[in-house]
# Entry
Amino acid sequence: MKRLLAALPLLFFTVNACSQPALETFDSEQYKIRAVTVANGLKIPWGFAFLPDGRVIVTEKRGTMRLIENGKLIDKPIEGIPKSTEHGQGGLLDVVLHPKYAENGWIYWTFNGEGSGTEKGLHGTELARGRLGGSKTEPRMTDVQVLFKQQPKSDRAHHFGSRIVFDRAGYMIVGFGDRGDNPDNGYEQRAQKMGDLAGKTIRLFDDGRIPPDNPFVNTPNARGEIFSLGNRNIQGGTLHPATGKIWMHEHGPQGGDEINIITAGTNYGWPVITYGANYGTGTKIGEGGEKSGMAQPLYKWVPSIAPSGMAFYSGKAMPKWKDNLFVGALAKQTLVRLTLDGEKIIKEERLFENKLGRIRDVREGPDGHIYILTNGSDGRLLRLEIAN
# Structure
């Protein structure tokens, strides 16, 4: 997908670099940076993706999917998507393009779907895909298919996740939250239950089928979709540019946010082990920070930064940042730049802390710049540039 986008015309992005007002500049260790507004007026935006024609598709938590064209937010939302209910932290969430979007036109997104029948009034994260059609002023999603529903649904308002990553073989890895149903509030350990899809990553073919080589396909009473378990609330995911491995981060409780390399069948420990603590009381959760058979995080934050969105940078616009990992943060309202030595994170720099607002998503654009999405009632899509 990165190769496809890199080959696209850059007219849209070049025009907007001149036509949009720049915000104040910020110092970083390598550059003086300015954040340029690409578009504003978004209502609690959550995820975004670049379309090959230069438009940007953005999800809003309230359940609307929007398009940005030539720096203008199109007034009419995209019609035809399944109803997404805003419930606590849940709503319309991530959006990504199929790696072969130019050939098949598929767009994928996650959202909170309300149950029916015996699950009426309950909620859970679902995965859908569709193709963008209609006109530029009245866009519509066609050929819509709901591919996956997290089950069982819950009345809780927390921990929906969710990020979608396609690996190099074309499989989807989708991260989900544990829905807040855990021992600290009187519930079972859903993230550790193999017949339960909460607190897991799943691995699917692009049409929603379960791959026969998934790690728990032949495990009695386990859901075949499960790829990893023990994940609290995944809100960032990306591919390592050199290894092609899946990297994801998740919210800890009071402390204990963590980055993990997601591998088949691995148990990441929640809520048996964590470096966080119970809210309010600060008391220990589970059995501490380590246990045999459960993976240690690659990197962790104590106290929490509430990470959301994550991308490796491989562009040419900011060469000193090549191969760095960027993570948005909600609680600290910052963009975290992480320097790596292979797969080891060796240094952290925090950018724009408390200057731009809560950062919900971060992506590399087809023009080689970093783009960030701020989370607010007047959310903005911003492009980061070197200030000359």
Remarks:
- The first helix runs from residue 2 to 6.
- Residues 46 and 93 are 5 Å apart (CA to CA).
